[in-house]
Amino acid sequence: MNIRDQVAVVGVGCSKFGEHYDRSAEDLVVDAFAEALADAKIEPGRIEAAWVGTLQSGFAGTALADHLKLYDIPITRVENYCASGMDAFRNACMAVASGMYDCALALGFEKLRDSGQRGLGTFGTHPSSGTARPRPRSSPWRRTATSRPTGSGRRRSRRWP
Question: Which of 56, 73, 91, 154 could serve as a FRET partner for 48 with CA atoms 20 to 30 Å apart?
Fold first, then answer.
């Protein structure tokens, strides 16, 4: 018996993608949550636990309880760079598969326009390169830093370690 025999996705919701300057991240989360409940044809009271995946929002899992009106259940925030939503989904699936819960919510969200950043790669140190920039595809371990003329007039590239 594997996880396919123990877990089913019964409802899905998604907010409309776009630049929502007039809406908060909480508004978008509530829209997706309402759509998922309608799709699953269940009441919010059936949800026994929730996992929330987000990276830059600054929200703890319990902060969303007010917006979703999910009180008296554990809400866990997971953070895993661009895979935060997937990690929330995986944790909810494992909790249901283990028999700990019968109905769990997995929710992932991010609203970069409100963060003041250009994207996910600019807010801190990238885990594999030690810089705020991802490594180039052409060379996974080296980057050209500068070019300078040599004595013969040809340009020579200096590499970062």
Answer: 56
